[in-house]
Amino acid sequence: MKKATFLPYLIWMIMFIVIPLILVLFYAFTVSTPEGYKLSLDNFKRFFEPVYLKVILRSLGLALVSTLICLVLGYPVAMIMAGNTFSRRDVLMLLFVVPMWMNFLLRTYAWLAILERNGILNIALSWLKLPSVNILYTNAAVVLGMVYNFLPFMVLPIYSVLRKIDKGVIEAAHDLGANPVGVFTKVILPLSVPGIVSGVTMVFMPALTTFIISRLLGGGQFTLIGNLIEQQFLVVGDWGFGSAISVIMIVFILLSMGIMSFFEDADKEKTLW
Amino acid sequence: MVKFLKKCYVYLIFAFLYVPILVLMVYSFNDSRSRGTWGGFTLRWYVELFQDRAIMSSLYYTILIAVIASFVATVIGTLAALGIYNAKGFKKKLTMNLTYIPVLNPDIVTGISLMILFVFAKIQLGFVTLLLAHITFNIPYVVLSVLPKLRQLNKHLYEAALDLGATPNQAFWKVIIPEIMPGIITGFLLAFTLSIDDFVISFFTTGSGVSTLSITAYSMARRGINPKINALSTLMFLLVLVLLVIVNVRQEREEKKGKDGKNGSKARIGSPSPDRNDPQFGPDWL
């Protein structure tokens, strides 16, 4: 049992993970000239053209808004679930994650039937004698899709952190005269920061990189960074620019990972990179 | 009163999560092409679904790829976990970090980087590339499922087997493998589910003629709502639900056997997110 049995794995990962990433870097930092590939930052320069800057700002904005909404909606859920309101907590938590196991694409698609002009939402609104709304193919629909898809990613880490809080600490705060608001802001909230940070990154990252939600619910052409990357590779065929955007995306992800790992309690097996 | 409000709030969120899925399911039985009207109960869309050649062909590829990819990934991943468990220092760190790259990388980056590799290496995009891509993103999940089981393993078990006269081979196959089997099976099922579920990576690594269910559904969905997709979604959701129940029942039995380690066996499938961007994958979720 002392043999290095991870060798096939190592070779596989180098071939299909490391080398492809090096290729992405290669295409991002070179331009093709008649004399062959030349080292250049031109691909990154293009990113600062107003058209593309707008895309990245919109992506960051929508991801941020969705993350905030998830936090506001999700924190109370996590808190209630972690408390003793419900008796079968485990079953409830399982029910909470079951929708996530439906294909991501199909979950997003489901909203089409609800949001479209003759969809359920407008039928319900007309029953209530309310004016109909048309939010499909707008930013609002994209945010809705993101919140719907990523809400569990916010709730789960916060829930698991809240569950681990020593009940004695909370009782002690009560005993020492803190009112419920004080207990929450001075004890529970600070103790749940690792969960919040983890939840925020786990919503923010996929929200930033998605291209399905924006394509299906947002309608228009390359709305978000993800769509831009897809376009460059599958439609325009500009690998250099596409790779450069991917590199920028990876940098964003690494940054948020770095922030998160700062808060994470030291898990020995997890090495940071 | 407060308790009542709390319950209401949670139920409201649950409604938010489940209503779209239910709507989809109800519409799959609607005998009318337009969504606004209910035209009565029908199984027409299900019949049409099974007569659709494109969907049937993608179903075939989805299952074929999921089976092969999860099997290969389980073998390589289990070997890798054993190796990582026994390795020390730099090698261990290096391999563990390699494991986390595809888990943390956005799918779209994994997808396009693999596409670049295949085109660069002049491998025709199609079945083979799709399979290679699926094996690649599956392996880390097998590694991460098997490792906790290894950590629960009594270090002296292997030596005891040797002392009692087993050859190293026998000790490995008759002692170590059965001990970590639950982790291996969990890893396999997780890989299988992820493989069926994947869209983004498949989207970039497939070629003409070969398509998975997600890709077919995507190209249909882009053209608007199609009752056949509703039927397909309903079936896929039920399938995943059944898989989930099987895995959870298995794990519950496992826990009842009383071999409860500190965390490993509590790592339920279904609780780790299906999204590969989940850094907290593993224990401590439920």
Question: What characteristics describe this protein?
Answer:
heterodimer, A: mainly alpha, MetI-like fold, two-stranded antiparallel sheet, 13 helices, about 70% helix, about 5% strand, globular, B: about 290 residues, 2 domains, 11 helices
Written account of the structure:
The complex is a heterodimer of chains A (273) and B (286). Chain A contains 13 helices and two strands, in the order αββαααααααααααα. In chain A, a hairpin with a 2-residue loop joins β1 and β2 (36-39). Helices cover 72% and strands 3% of the residues of chain A. Chain A is globular. In chain A, α8 (167-175) runs antiparallel to α9. Chain A has a two-stranded antiparallel ribbon. By secondary structure, chain A is mainly alpha-helical. Mean pLDDT of chain A is 85; it is low at 266-273. Chain B is mainly alpha-helical and 286 residues long. Chain B has two domains: 1-46, no CATH class; 53-266, MetI-like (MetI-like fold). Helices cover 72% and strands 0% of the residues of chain B. Chain B contains eleven helices and no strands. Chain B has helices spanning 2-27, 44-51, 53-86, 89-104, 107-120, 127-152, 156-163, 168-197, 200-205, 213-221, 227-256. The longest helix of chain B is centred in the N-terminal third of the chain and has 34 residues, at 53-86. Classes of the chains: A mainly alpha (273), B mainly alpha (286). Chains A and B meet through α1, α3, α4, α5 and α7 of A and α1, α3, α4, α5 and α6 of B.
